[in-house]
Amino acid sequence: QVQPVESGGGLVQAGGSLRLSCTVSRRFLNMRVWAWYRQTPGKQRELVAAYTSGGGTNYGDSVKGRFTISRDNAKSTLYLQMSSLKPEDTAVYYCHFETALLASWGQGTQVTVSS
Q: Residue 42, exposed/middle/buried by CB under 10 A (0-12, 13-18, 19+)?
C-alpha cells in the first residue's frame, strides 16, 4: 500500500496563509483523483480541493477564491495553498488519491486557525 504523506500544517492567525504538501513515494501516471479533504470532530470528511482524471479541478464552496490546489508531477507532490484563513478552516487535512487499482489516504496534518 502506497500512502501519501502530508506536511505543512500548523497554527496560524486568522487572515494568514499556509501551504500544505502531500508526497507520494511512487509516481502514478494515471491518477483518477488527487485531492485534499478535511475533517473536524463529529463531522464527515469534506472535499477541499481536487484534481480529477480530466485534469480539471474542483473546490469546496467554502474555500473557493481562498485556496489553490497545485501539483508537481515530477516530484509526485500535491500542494494546497491556503490564504485568508478563517477559524472555521481549523481541521485535520488529508491527502487522498485514487488510481484504477487502489485508493489511499494519508495520516493527515492539523491546521489550526486562531481568531
A: exposed
d(CA 76, CA 29) in angstroms, rounded, equals 10
Q: For 3-38, b where at least 16 C-beta lie within 10 A, e where not — what string?
A: ebebebbeebeeeeebebbbebeeebeebeebbbbb
18 near 82, Cβ under 8 Å?
yes
Q: Is there a contact between 75 and 23 (Cβ–Cβ < 8 Å)? A: yes
Which residues are CB-neighbours of 32 under 8 A, at least 6 positions away? 52, 53, 98, 99, 100
Cβ distance 35 to 55 under 8 Å?
A: no
Q: How many CA atoms lie within 13 A of 36 on its CB side?
A: 33
pLDDT for 56 equals 92
Q: Which segments in the chain show pLDDT lower than 50?
A: none
